[in-house]
């Protein structure tokens, strides 16, 4: 029986930072990179919604074992919202389920509302999410019009600041612990204000020690030669060193 010769692809271990575009899932990015570069073991940590863009960490080979450590890192996002409209998914991809007049608000007043979300809190995940209940993803139930009770999760928000407001839309920056649904934060703020709100744009800029400015856009990544692709891979040893230094 002939033995398959190990190829260079079998020994790609580490991570690569990708700037995910909107319009595709995090899994789509993994599949594209795996297929394009003929990789075997590939994954990602820190899922981004299809409508979101920004930093996505791809795990390659033995780098997949670092998933839990890297997913536990804090994140920073930049985004936009619209007041006066509530959607079933809490973002612009969903159906508008209610509208209400938007009160006159200053930037300072909006930031007073935003400040209520800083610190520890319990967040109820949206129905349109990948969280599973009894083995079934919530978004699959939501498509069937089924809503189930979701267990609140403890999260921590370090910073939530409204940077700009031109009624009824605004821009913000948010830094948080892992597992935060930013669209839920926007939705909940709209509920507190009383007019409703939904997320219209989201971009992840930081995850732990990694920044989107160091990531490569997916389209550009696909144009790289195998040699140049390998140069972009951060080896596991370097990641371990970074994480160890962080914990000291």
How would you describe this protein?
This protein is α+β, with helices and mostly antiparallel strands and 248 residues long. The protein folds into two domains: 8-72 and 208-247, Alpha-Beta Plaits (2-Layer Sandwich); 75-124 and 152-206, Pseudouridine synthase, CATH 3.30.2350. Helix content is 27%, strand content 33%. The chain is built from eight helices and 14 strands. The chain has helices at 26-36, 67-71, 107-115, 138-143, 182-193, 218-222, 226-232, 236-247, and strands at residues 14-20, 42-45, 53-60, 75-83, 85-87, 96-99, 119-123, 132-133, 136-137, 153-166, 169-176, 197-207, 210-211, 216-217. The strands form three sheets. Strands 1, 2, 3, 4, 7, 10, 11, 12, 13 and 14 form a ten-stranded mixed beta sheet that branches. Strands 5-6 form a two-stranded antiparallel sheet. It is globular and about 55 Å long. The termini are far apart. Residues 1-8 have low confidence and may be disordered.
Instruction: State the share of residues found in helices, binned by percent.
Output: 25-40%
Shape summary? globular
Helices, by number, come to: 8
Q: Biggest sheet: strands, sense, closure?
A: 10 strands, mixed
Give the structural class. alpha+beta
The number of distinct β-strands equals 14
CATH class of the largest domain, named Alpha Beta
Walk me through the topology.
Layout: E1 14-20, H1 26-36, E2 42-45, E3 53-60, H2 67-71, E4 75-83, E5 85-87, E6 96-99, H3 107-115, E7 119-123, E8 132-133, E9 136-137, H4 138-143, E10 153-166, E11 169-176, H5 182-193, E12 197-207, E13 210-211, E14 216-217, H6 218-222, H7 226-232, H8 236-247
Parallel strand pairs: 1-14, 3-12
Antiparallel strand pairs: 1-3, 2-3, 4-11, 4-12, 5-6, 7-10, 8-9, 10-11, 12-13
């Amino acid at each position: 029986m002939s033995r398959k010769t190990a190829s260079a692809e079998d020994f790609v271990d580490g991570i690569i930072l990708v700037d995910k575009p909107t319009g595709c899932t995090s899994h789509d990015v993994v599949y594209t990179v795996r297929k394009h570069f003929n990789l075997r073991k590939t994954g990602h940590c820190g899922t981004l919604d299809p409508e979101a863009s920004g930093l996505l960490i791809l795990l390659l080979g033995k780098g997949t074992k670092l998933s839990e450590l890297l997913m536990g890192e804090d994140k920073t996002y930049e985004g936009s919202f619209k007041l006066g409209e509530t959607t079933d998914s809490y973002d612009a991809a969903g159906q508008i389920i209610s509208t209400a007049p938007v009160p006159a608000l200053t930037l300072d007043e909006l930031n007073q509302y935003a400040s209520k979300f800083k610190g520890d809190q319990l967040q109820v995940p949206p129905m349109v999410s990948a969280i599973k209940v009894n083995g079934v993803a919530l978004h699959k139930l939501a498509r069937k019009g089924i809503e189930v009770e979701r267990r609140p999760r403890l999260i921590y928000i370090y910073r939530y600041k409204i940077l700009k407001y031109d009624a009824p839309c605004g821009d913000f920056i948010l830094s948080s612990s892992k597992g935060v649904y930013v669209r839920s934060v926007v939705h909940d703020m709209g509920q507190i204000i009383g007019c409703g709100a939904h997320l219209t744009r989201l971009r992840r800029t930081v995850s732990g020690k990694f920044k989107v400015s160091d990531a490569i856009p997916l389209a550009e990544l696909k144009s790289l030669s195998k040699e140049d692709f390998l140069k972009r891979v951060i080896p596991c040893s370097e990641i371990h060193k970074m994480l160890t230094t962080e914990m000291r």
